[in-house]
Amino acid sequence: GLSHLKGVHASYAQRGLDWWSLTKDFKYHSANVSVTVPFAVFGFSYNRLSLGEFTRSNENGVEIGRFTPHEHTFTLGASHSFAGGLSVGASVKTFNFVEVPATSSTNPAGSDDVEKTLPILFDIGALYGFSFINDSSTNDDLSIGFSLQNFGSNFIIEDKMNQFRASDQLNRYLRVGFAY
Predict the structure, then answer these.
(1) List of residues 6+ apart from 47 with CB closer than 8 A
(2) Report field, pTM of the whole predicted structure over 0.90
(3) Dihedral in degrees, nearest 10, Cα atoms 2, 3, 5, 11
(4) Is 35 helix (H, G, I), strand (E, B) or coil?
(5) 94-152 residue pLDDT tens
């Protein structure tokens, strides 16, 4: 991760997910910045998945408008490399699903009565690398690491117009791995 970067870095990527007909209008955008200071590396990222345009219909199948949903994540992270091959990092992020309401003759402004409580999520991780043989002619580095991801509050949606409330816990992950 971040702990091995030096200086200032910035990147932007845009990818189309048009490898399947159902996702041909999907677009993924990612913007990232990292800055190294004497005691850590700090990073910020914004990721967005645009899902294309959808048609909204009423209960009778009559089209009432179109909408273009997307989801996005803001992340702020920090990491530090210690002497001896240990690197640790942590981040805080929030996630949102945005569904721009459709306009219609009964809803010309496209307003809705949907309220969301955005989750605050935390990730932590560590990576440890070491060598078996202290010989510069061989490369026997082994790295082991773990991460805990998406620990925090739930994503809550409340639709007052349709009297619907949902609380979703985003998937939480424990990952362990090694590389030689």
Answers:
(1) 28, 29, 30, 31, 72, 73, 75
(2) no
(3) 10
(4) strand
(5) 988 777 665 555 555 555 566 777 889 999 999 998 877 776 666 668 899 999 999 99
